[in-house]
Each structure stands twice: as C-alpha cells, then as structure tokens.
# Entry
Amino acid sequence: MTDQPTGRVGIVSLGCPKALVDSERILTQLRTEGYEVSPTYDGADVVIVNTCGFIDSARAESLDAIGEALNENGKVLVTGCLGMDEGLIRERYPNVLSVTGPQQYQAVMRAVHDVVPPRHDPYTDLVPPQGIRLTPRHYAYLKISEGCNHSCSFCIIPSLRGPLVSRPVFDVLDEAEKLAVSGVKELLVISQDTSAYGVDVKHAAGDWHGKPVRAHMTDLARALGDLGVWVRLHYVYPYPHVDRVIPLMAEGRILPYLDIPYQHASPTVLKAMRRPAHQEKVLERIRAWREQCPDLTIRSTFIVGFPGETEEDFEFLLDWLAEAQLDRVGCFRYEAVAGAAANALDNPVPAEVTEDRWHRFMAAQQEISRGRLAAKVGRTLDVIIDEVDEEGAIARSSADAPDIDGCVFLNGETDVAPGDIVQAHIEHSDEYDLWGRVAI
Ligand code: SF4
# Structure
C-alpha cells in the first residue's frame, strides 16, 4: 500500500443547494479514486470552481472566484452553471484548464485526471457509503431530479440544466436511507421543481423493501417519512396536487413546511412571468392547508420590479401578502438575466422604483413575520440543535430551513449536541428569530 494520496484537489462551491449537491458528487468521486481534498489553495494540485450562472450578481461572483483561484493556485477547472457560457470564461481567463457545465461529473473527473493522473490503490477506495457531504453531519440535501419543464420568463434554468430528469425512486430512497443510517437527522429535499418529480418517467414505481413506491412527490414524501428523520420539502411548484402532501404533514410524517415560490400575486405580472395566475384560489388553498395542518410554515419568494409591474400590481401584491400571512418570505429585485425571455418585455421598471418597492415589501413582510413569531411565545416546540458553544446553542424548529430561515437561540444551554432534537420552551421573539430554553 502506498501512503501517498493520488493528488490533492481544492474545490470552491458557489451557488444554490443544487450546485452544492453537484460538488458533493464530485468530492465523492475524487475520494473514491483516492484523491485528497485540500482546504487551501496552496496545498492543492488543482482547484475546481463550481460556479453559479443564475443572475448577473452570481455570475460576477463566480468570475471573481475563478480569478482568485487562478491567482492563488494557477491550475483551475471551471464547472457548473456558468460553465454553459464557456466563451465568456475563456475570454476573461484564457488560462483555465477546462470548462464544463452543470452535472458533468465525468467530464470534471477527466479534467482532474489530465492534471493529476489517478493512481490505483485499493486502500484509498474506501469511501463512506453515503458519499462525502459539505453540509454538517446532521442534515443533508437530497436531490431528486434535475432540470425543469416550465418556462418562467425570468429564468434561464431550463436552458442551463435542460428539461426535467427524475432520479429513479429506488436511488433516491436508497441514498436517503444511507444518510439516515449514517446519522443524518434532517433531509432537505431539493430539485428545480419538487412537485413535478416523476412526471418525465410517468411516475414509474420502484421496489422499496418489497413494496412498490411511485416516483411521485406524495409517495416519495410518505416513504421518506418512514425513515424516522426530519424531511423538509423545498422548491415546490404550486400545482394542485400539492394538497396531497398536507395530510402527511398533519400526521407528523414529514415536517409541516412548504417552500413554494409564488413570485408575485398580480394576475397580469404572473401572466407575463408565465406562472400560474389564480391568486384568489391560492388564498383559499392556503386557508384550507392551515385548517388541516395548523402548524404549517409556508416559505416563499417573490420578485418586485418585474417589467410592466405597475404601482397597482405592486399594491395588489402587498394586499395579497397581508391576506396570505406567509411565515417566511424572500424578495428579489428583478434583474435582467442574460438569455431570459423577460428581457424583451416592454415597460421596464426604473431601478429606483424597484428599490422603493423592495423596501416597502420587506417592511410589510417583517411585520407579518413579527406577528407570526410572537404567536409562538409560550409554546413548546421541537428543535434541532445546529451549533453549541460556551454561551449556548443555536437550533431550528420545523419552521426554519438551514441558512435561509431564522433560528431558535437557546442561550446558556450547553448540555446538548449538534443533531439532537429536543423540546424548547419559547420565551421571546423578534421579526426573524426565537429565543427559548430546553424544556425539562
Ligand atoms: S419553475 Fe423554477 S426552474 Fe423552472 S423555469 Fe420556473 S423559475 Fe425556472
């Protein structure tokens, strides 16, 4: 056996959780082949930069990261969404060694082999069966499909990542079970469009522990709910069949949490965005969901300043928001993304108007969020511990996805460990977070 690793590879991972999962796949493959992962530029034989190309600010950040890796190390392989625009990258950085698009794991590995050839060593093939993850040990992202069949006019993801391709249901459940066995306590289900899962394979069933499970969001959620870990659904497109996962949340099989991007409320703007435009019905459905599952947390994202958005459209959105009382909301200022159909729309909204609307939107949502969190004071909630230091613990409830939502601060509670799920008595709130104590 050799005690020298095959080579050391650095990786810079930018972008959304889907890109993070791509980085994890690349890392898993590197470790499978005996490469070591270098945490510094200095120690790496080559650096992979996994880029994001979604909006202009993310493209700029990706280009900066490539420049930094070239300065610090010199041998750089670019992959990910920005890799679709190879001309742009090569024009700015002619010295990058290779450029590949998203999910091109094999091509990335070939490029690594060209710089640092693999050495066969059976002892370095040992990789934990759940693969290598970049998230903390107690939660993990579970990617169920790639691509998207929609054509929202502001989005270039379908042209970057192609149409929907669902992973076989057995593969998804097998990975989820391995993660649960390895100690993961929370699975975050991600894709471009979680509610479309299995549409491309006509919801073909797979065998799971002797029982058929269809490649369908409801069946998958039910089967994941049997693993005894928290299951959180992200990026759920507002299709009617979303109604069917609410009973699973009410029964406690999966977390009562829906991340469902509504993007706007005005029918005119939604039509221009090429999104479903029946907001009255959406309000009725939200009411019905909350009747069935009173603890349901709804997270959503919106875009303000979309071309053609009038003051009337924007006020419609604010009124709708007041009615909907969503729990967690993100708001983006519209940005013209190179290649998006929306760029050709008339009546762009001036930047200062977009800015003003963004502030008004955020102020309105802050008040809603403050009220909804205040209603939790005095309750006892299950929370998962993320971090502990000498001052106390930081946890999350079912209402809080990591990195994007709030926290539950447990000041002075040091007798817990990351991944523990404990009950917390909530004593205080503000517009984003909660404070409490571990309930005895
Ligand atoms: S559903 Fe999401 S990924 Fe698909 S086109 Fe619309 S915004 Fe883009």
Observations:
- The chain has a mean pLDDT of 90.
- The first helix runs from residue 17 to 32.
- Residues 148, 150-152, 155, 157-158, 192-193, 237 surround iron/sulfur cluster (CB under 6 Å).
- DSSP finds twelve helices and 20 strands in the chain.
